[in-house]
Amino acid sequence: MTREKSVLDIPSYRVLGFGVHALDMPTALRACDALIRSGRPSMVLTADASALVIASEDAEFAEILSSGDLVTPDSEGVVWALRRAGCPQPTRVTGCDLMGELCSLSADQGYRIFLLGAEPGTAELAAEKLRLRYPGVHIVGTRHGYFPASDDAVVAQEIAESKPDILFVAMGIPRQEKFLRQNAERIGYRLGMGVGGSFDVYSGRVKRAPRLIRALKLEWLWRTLSNPKKFAKAKTLPVFAWRVLRSKRDASRRGS
Ligand code: UDP
Predict the structure, then answer these.
(1) Tens of pLDDT along 140-155?
(2) Could you tell me which residues come within 8 angstroms of residue 49 by beta carbon, excluding any fewer than 6 positions away?
C-alpha cells in the first residue's frame, strides 16, 4: 500500500486508475484559494462516474484528469468507489456546489469570475441570479458555449480581455476540460473548472431535484428521467460499477 501526499497535501485514492481527492467542501475551498494565490493556471476537475469512464477511453482527457490540481468526488458513485478504495469517510463535493462557494469567495476576495458555456442567454441569467445570491460576487463576463472548436482561440482571446481569475466552463465533459487546458496560457486564468450543467441550474432553467430525492441520493435518477439526453450518461453507470468491482482494493489506495 503506497502512501503519497498530493501537492495540496490532501489525500487521494485511485478510482479506475485516476487519483480522486478525499476532502470536504471547506477543504476544497481552501485548496482552491491556495491555487488561485499560487498565480499559475490551475485546474479543478469534478469527477463523476461518467467522467472516469470517458477518461478510460479518451487519452487527452485522461492526461488532463491525471494532472488536475484538484479532483473532487462529484457523484455518489465515485463516493462509493472511494469507500471501496479504503477512504474512511468520503464526502461528495459537486462542481455545482463548489461553484457557489467560489462565488462567495469571489465576493470576499474580489476574485474575477468569467462564465463560459450553456445555451445563449443562460450564462447571463445565471450571472444575474448569482449576483443576487452572493452579493459582491465579481462576475466580469459571460459567453454562451455553442461555437465550433475552430473558434476556440478567438473565444479564448475574448475571455482573456476580461482578465478572469476564475473561469467556469459549462460545455459538458470532456469538451470543457479540453478548452480549459488548451487555452490556459492564452487566457491566463488562475483557476479553471468545468461545471457541466451548473449554469442551467443557477439560471433556474433546470430545476434541482426536490429535497427528498436529493436526500435519498437519487438526484442522478431524477435528472435522467427529466432529460432524455442524460440517458447516454446513465449508461456509463453500470460500466463504472463493474470496473470498480473488478479493481483490486489494495491496488487502489494511493493517499496519505
Ligand atoms: N453545452 C455547451 N456547448 C455545447 C454542448 C453543450 O455549452 O456544444 C452546454 C449545455 O447547454 C449544458 C452543458 O453544456 O449547459 C452540459 O451540461 P450537462 O448537464 O450535459 O453536463 P454534465 O454535467 O453532464 O457533463
Answers:
(1) 999 999 999 999 999 9
(2) 75, 77, 78, 236, 237, 240, 241
Q: What is the pTM of this model?
A: 0.91
Write out the DSSP string of 13-35.
EEETTEEEE---HHHHHHHHHHH
Distance 139 CA to ligand 1 centre (A): 20
Decide: 74 in ligand 1 pocket, CB within 6 A.
Answer: no
CATH class of the region 3-229: alpha beta
Long-range contacts of 7-13 (CB under 8 A, 24+ apart): 7/69, 8/34, 8/35, 8/69, 8/70, 9/256, 10/70, 11/87, 11/255, 11/256, 12/71, 12/254, 12/255, 13/82, 13/85, 13/86, 13/87, 13/252, 13/253, 13/254, 13/255
Give the residue, by CA position, lying nearest to ligand 1 atom 17: 197
**From ligand 1's centre to the CA of 189, what distance in Å?**
21
Nearest CA to ligand 1 atom 22: 196
d(CA 63, CA 147): 24
